[in-house]
Write a structure and sequence with these properties.
Length: about 475
């Protein structure tokens, strides 16, 4: 059974651990076995701490045996993106410059997961400083997509996406500034949730762009997303961007009954210039939701035409402000792609940046108006399937286009507005996963989770990447 444990979701493992049918040590050993076998190929981990993980699992097992069960995350092995601080441990941020950096405190989300009894197995690969969407990391090597080792896993949380998909961790956290949770969730066929901006504390997370950054779950199932979000959400006085609103018991909202819910579709932006197979799968998913009793309504969001400008002006300026000193004093220590983006970020003026913030306000008003008549908005997560590693341009509908411009096209609106957005698998195209994005009103994560849960039950992704011969462990 030990081999099977790593492939299970939190929702399956938690009852077994609580009832003492399975020990956290067995689960952790199963995960570490897969890491040992698969990481040389996938490169999802930057570092693994086997000794500490086993010791932590033994401690969790003792707690549970003595009647101190803490909840569904107790004894669950998790590896996190190497951007989140662990006290007195190295956090590389996927970089050379921070390769020996040790934080003096735990990130808020790390503290909450520790309180929940999580067993940490290591730190996961990422795009350098989270500034990119390929996880083709020049310092720690490229992370590979477990569905096809020649393909990118997306980014910047590519290690998290690949590790969850390949059962090298039971669950993970990613960060998302332009799509960095949802892009790898789509590319690897898992569930990724970017909560509302202010729902989860970013204290102790190295920033990419202050006003766009989010932290959220990257997991195997929708119920797992609800479990993890409930553990990490909440107001934090150490993070002034968090909002003091109550945290729902998200698992209570997971129902297959979505009769009467209204699904919004925006044609002119979210279904424009999409790979035909991707579009067909997402439209089929909408039809499934409709067959389950949801109403479908077309909505207009005029401000979407400004997304590309507003996102790039904001992220370029904020990221370059963060890295300005190192860019001036040690530019050679950045990867070429990140250095170029940081140099570009030195060019926008204060006028450019402030105009972008005004456009964000307009976009928020337009989304709020749309959510006055629909419960959620459904879109493709990505307009294309994952590209080959090292490919910075791709063919989309007969045209050669820039990868970075198009990879965040459907995810960036969620960052600009701060609205909650979730990616869930909706099928396979050319053997690669395709994600459907569900967006909703601010602080209504439970609504997204309900729709996603109903869809997952009606249309589960039954194929796993490791069924191919190179993943037989």
């Amino acid at each position: 059974m030990s081999k099977e444990l790593a492939s299970m979701a939190i929702e399956e493992l938690a009852p077994l651990i609580q009832s003492k049918a399975v020990s956290p040590v067995e689960v952790t050993e199963s995960v570490l076995e897969r890491v040992k076998a698969l990481n040389p190929q996938i490169n999802a981990y930057i570092s693994v701490d086997e000794e500490k993980a086993i010791a932590s699992a033994k401690h969790a097992a003792l707690d549970i045996i003595t009647g101190n069960y803490r909840g569904p995350l107790h004894g669950i092995p998790m590896a996190l993106k190497d951007i989140l601080f662990f006290k007195d441990e190295v956090t590389t941020v996927g970089s050379k410059i921070h390769q020996s950096f040790k934080a003096e405190y735990d990130a808020a989300v790390v503290s909450k997961l520790k309180e929940a009894g999580v067993v940490f197995t290591g730190k996961l690969n990422m795009h350098e400083y989270a500034w990119g969407a390929t996880t083709d990391n020049p310092h720690y090597g490229p992370c590979r997509n477990p569905w096809d080792l020649n393909k990118i896993p997306g980014g910047s949380s590519g290690g998290s996406g690949a590790a969850v998909a390949a059962d090298m961790t039971i669950a993970s956290l990613g960060t998302d500034t332009g799509g960095s949770i949802r892009i790898p969730a789509s590319a690897n066929g898992i569930v990724g949730l970017k909560p509302t901006h202010g729902r989860v504390s970013k204290y102790g997370c190295f920033p990419l762009a202050w006003s766009l950054d989010h932290i959220g779950p990257m997991v195997k199932t929708v119920r797992d997303a609800a479990i993890v979000l409930e553990a990490i959400a909440g107001y934090d006085p150490n993070d002034p961007t968090t909002v003091d609103v109550s945290v729902a018991h998200y698992t209570d909202y997971l129902s297959e009954d979505i009769r009467g819910m209204v699904i919004g579709i925006n044609e002119e932006y979210f279904f424009n210039d999409v790979d035909p197979q991707v579009e067909a799968l997402v439209r089929n998913a909408v039809e499934i939701l409709q067959e389950m009793g949801a109403e479908v309504k077309t909505v207009s969001i005029p401000g979407l035409k400004y997304v590309a400008y507003a996102e790039m002006m904001t992220i370029l300026a904020e990221a370059s402000a963060i890295h300005h000193y190192n860019l001036k004093t040690r530019p050679q220590d950045f990867g070429e792609d990140v250095r170029l983006l940081l140099e570009l970020g030195e060019l926008p003026s204060a006028v450019d940046y402030l105009q972008a913030q005004q456009l964000r306000l307009r976009l928020n008003r337009d989304f709020n108006a749309a959510f006055g008549s629909v419960d959620v908005l459904v879109t493709p997560t990505l307009p294309f399937i994952p590209t080959d590693i090292g490919q910075d341009r791709l063919m989309l509908n007969g045209r050669m286009v820039n990868f970075l411009d198009h990879v965040i096209r459907f995810t960036a609106p969620g960052n600009l507005t701060g609205l909650p957005s979730l990616s869930i698998p909706c099928g396979l195209s050319q053997g690669m996963p395709v994600g459907m994005q569900i967006m909703g009103p601010a602080f209504k994560e439970e609504t997204l989770l309900q729709v996603a849960y109903a869809f997952e039950k009606a249309n589960p992704l039954k194929t796993k990447p490791y069924l191919s011969k190179e993943f037989q462990v």
